[in-house]
Design goal:
Layout: H1 6-28, H2 32-50, H3 54-74, H4 76-87, H5 100-116, E1 120-124, E2 135-143, H6 146-152, E3 163-167, E4 170-177, H7 184-187, H8 192-203, E5 207-211, E6 218-222, E7 225-228, H9 235-245, H10 249-262, H11 264-285, E8 287-299, E9 305-311, E10 314-322, H12 323-332, E11 336-340, E12 350-352, E13 358-359, E14 365-370, E15 373-380
Parallel strand pairs: 1-3, 8-11
Antiparallel strand pairs: 1-5, 2-4, 3-4, 5-6, 6-7, 8-10, 9-15, 10-14, 11-13, 12-15
Helix pairs in contact: 1-11, 2-3, 5-6, 5-9, 11-12
């Protein structure tokens, strides 16, 4: 087991967080089917390498080279959103908490709009700035009240087709234009307001509230998901939950801990993958020295002689090389210390051995052999040739 330093633990933790964020992004990017296909191809590639299927490995390597370009093209919009979120990470802010009166006024307005079958769209920003996602809008800055909100969505008002942005107890802007979603699976029978609400929820951490004039229903969009509430009375709970999750720091810490507990399989997968990558890449890429017991083998024993014993039968060899290469080579390759016994017929019984006598795979370098002298106990089994010894092999 490689030694794990504090810096290595920090390294593993950072990569695990990055992998966890990537998995969370893939969930929101609706790329799970594509991810499953990539995982199957990666598993086939690793299996082909293990079985030394050279042609299959070569084809899969070319496939992955093309796959990178394909993924960039297919998921370019999702990647753009990801990098935008990274770019504005330092610009995140704490949203203004809405007082109970403002929440009650908003819920009362929604209930009245549902009864009137009047369409409406409200936006409550989260921590991320919305300026890069929205367009237009008329600044207002008025206190949230039911009469004000109802007047903004009066069918005769020129700005009733846009969204109303609410921060804290203030109506910041109205007649705001939002980006439209193309997720038809979630939109279903929803109209333009639903597409606008989901479009913003896919790009930012805002809460969007939609009142449908056709069906008289209330829907909310948040974290890239659109769902219809059973009734307006559930809206107050959803608003307070949203503000609590993105509100003061203690609530934020509880929210993040809840998020970790809710998505523990992804977190566990990220930690395991990070640790596996560390074991595969970091210790394996460093050059180190390690010992291995290697058997002694006798070659070129002249005819008429037999080996009774070899002392010792194994020696300690110190190798140098990359740990990954060493592990693979020592698992698959054959190691031996070769003793040339040709001079046995001249009476020689002790032989010196060194690194040059070690049979080893490529990528490893033998540095030393201990002990350096091998003794052969030999008996004569028949007639011995009187001619000078000749080396075989």
């Amino acid at each position: 087991m490689p030694e794990l330093r504090i810096t290595d633990a920090v390294d593993v933790a950072i990569v695990a967080l990055m992998l966890w964020a990537a998995l969370a992004w893939l969930r929101r990017a609706r790329a799970r089917i594509a991810l499953a296909g990539v995982a199957i191809a990666a598993g086939a590639y690793l299996l082909a390498r293990q079985l030394e299927l050279q042609m299959t490995v070569w084809i899969l390597q070319g496939f992955f080279a093309v796959l990178v370009l394909v993924l960039v093209v297919v998921f370019q919009e999702d990647l753009r959103r990801l990098f935008e979120q990274i770019a504005v990470w330092g610009l995140r802010r704490k949203p203004q908490a809405a007082p109970p009166d403002a929440v009650d006024a908003l819920v009362g307005t929604v209930r009245a709009l549902v009864a009137q079958r009047t369409g409406a769209l409200f936006v409550i920003p989260g921590r991320e700035p919305l300026d890069r996602h929205v367009a237009g809008g008329i600044p207002l800055g008025g206190l949230v009240s039911e009469p004000l909100l109802l007047s903004l969505f009066d069918p005769h008002s020129p700005g009733h087709d846009g969204a109303v942005a609410i921060e804290g107890d203030r109506v910041m802007r109205f007649a705001v234009h939002l980006p439209l979603s193309t997720d038809h699976a979630q939109l279903g029978r929803g109209g333009t307001r639903h597409a606008a609400a989901l479009g913003l929820a896919e790009r930012a951490d805002a809460l969007c509230i939609v009142v449908s004039e056709e069906r008289g229903t209330v829907s909310i969009a948040c974290d890239g998901r659109l769902r219809t509430l059973a009734g307006p009375e559930l809206l107050a709970r959803e608003i307070r939950r949203f503000l609590a999750d993105r509100g003061p720091r203690p609530a934020e810490r509880r929210s993040r801990m809840t998020l970790v507990l809710r998505r523990w399989p992804e977190a566990l997968l990220a930690v395991g993958a990070s640790a596996g990558l560390w074991l595969l890449l970091v210790p394996g890429s460093t050059v180190g020295q390690f010992e291995r017991k290697v058997p002694v083998e006798v070659d070129n024993l002249p005819p008429g002689y037999a080996i009774e014993s070899v002392e010792p039968t194994e020696v300690e060899v110190v190798f140098q090389g990359r740990r990954r290469d060493a592990y693979l080579a020592l698992q698959q390759a054959r190691l031996a210390v070769k003793v040339d016994a040709l001079l046995v017929q001249l009476g020689r019984r002790s032989f010196d051995v060194g690194p040059e006598h070690v049979e080893h795979p490529e990528g490893l370098q033998p540095l030393s052999v201990t002990p350096t002298r091998i003794k052969l106990n030999v008996v004569q089994t028949g007639a011995v040739s009187s001619r000078p010894p000749r080396r075989r092999g």
